[in-house]
Amino acid sequence: MHPKEWISVRDAGIYCHPADAYIDPLEPVSRAIITHGHADHARPGHHCVVSTKATLDIMRVRYGEEMAKDAVALKYGEDYQLGEDADPVKLTLYPAGHILGSAQVKLSYRGNSIIFAGDYKRRHDPTCEPFAVTPCDVFVTEATFALPVFTHPPLKDEIQKLLHSLDTFPERCHLVGVYALGKCQRVLYGLRQLGYSKPVYLHGALLNLCALYREYGHNFGELIPVSEVANKKSLAGEIVLAPPSALNDRWSRKLPNVRTAMASGWMQIRARSKQRQAELPLIISDHCDWPELLRTVKEVDAPEVWVTHGREEALIHQIEKMGIRAKALSLLGYEDTEETG
Question: Which PANTHER family would you find in this protein's record (predicted)?
Fold first, then answer.
């Protein structure tokens, strides 16, 4: 049975009828399958959440007891049955390479399968399991950076830009905007990989998730909360990581002679870097760029691809040129791409 007969889009999000489960629902539901811990995919208040253990731990850090009434932690590659015993849906999670605990959701039912890749990337990242190419009948891919203009440089090149700026402006505090989950840890890894051994200073909003990453065996060297630095002038010539929202607020004004940087795939677009008021744009993404999206579609080799989360038209056009059936997930029910997060 083709997935279009048992997958639909409701107000709460993507719904699997025979499993009575939603994938990354937009509002509280009875059963939610969560691809990863970013807030636009992992919302609180569900009755039951099914995900990887790491994603469940991320949700507990962020939401506490409001995460869900019940939770099921699955290992990568472990089969789990949903729905009626006589006619079950098989759920299997595979690594997505996006952030810690991120997973592709594979649902198999009556001889056909669909994979919801969620957010994913193909670059090497030791802070999470690498993307696993997995056969399926329908592959649902994101399209965040699905335009040919997006070709992300190597992580080490962007981290080297930051270190070069630090050498050039040793009297300035380098304040880098990073998202607390995934981007922060990837920047820390990149700094340590290039031999930066000094302490890195963190905004308080980044501490809990860095501590969770440590529990999963990831060592980022010495990290010091900015709140523990009595003399903020001593942060001249140091690297401080903070959420993007803190780059230009009252908190950042306490720092000496700030040089503002922003780590994001969107920094490839000059207008976006100006919008963030980033003197030093760092093109660091936790998503695939254009060549990697096309590579992934080719390697998965599914006969049909559904596209969501962004630049649908360009990617659909290119996939069809590859001889693969493709359609926007919006054609299956979404009226606004913002509904996909």
Answer: BLL1145 PROTEIN, CLEAVAGE AND POLYADENYLATION SPECIFICITY FACTOR FAMILY MEMBER
Nearest by Cα to 209 from 94, 329, 54, 75: 54
Which tokens sit at 288?
Answer: 């695939």
CA dihedral 326, 55, 64, 242 (to 10 degrees): -90
Domain boundary among 258, 282, 306: 282
Q: Within this chain, do residues 263 and 326 fall inside the same structural domain, yes or no?
A: no
- Residue 231: per-residue pLDDT: 96
Structure tokens at 146: 């699905």
List the domain range (segments joined by +) for residue 219: 155-282
Which 8-state DSSP code applies to residue 123?
A: S
Q: Considering 282, 302, 322, which residue would you say is the last residue of a domain?
A: 282
Q: Number of structural domains, the chain?
A: 2
What's 183's domain CATH number?
3.40.50
Residue 337, pLDDT > 60, answer: no
d(CA 307, CA 257): 44
pLDDT band at 236 (very low <50, low <70, confident <90, very high): very high
Same domain membership, residue 142 and residue 225: no
Do 128 and 183 reside in the same domain of the chain? no
d(CA 214, CA 28): 30
Dist CA 94 CA 129 (whole Å): 9
In this predicted model, what pLDDT tens digit does every residue of 88-142 receive, in sequence order?
999 999 999 999 999 999 999 999 999 999 999 999 999 999 999 999 999 999 9
What percent of the chain is modeled with pLDDT above 90? 87
DSSP state of 336: -
Is the CA virtual torsion 242, 245, 249, 250 positive or negative?
negative
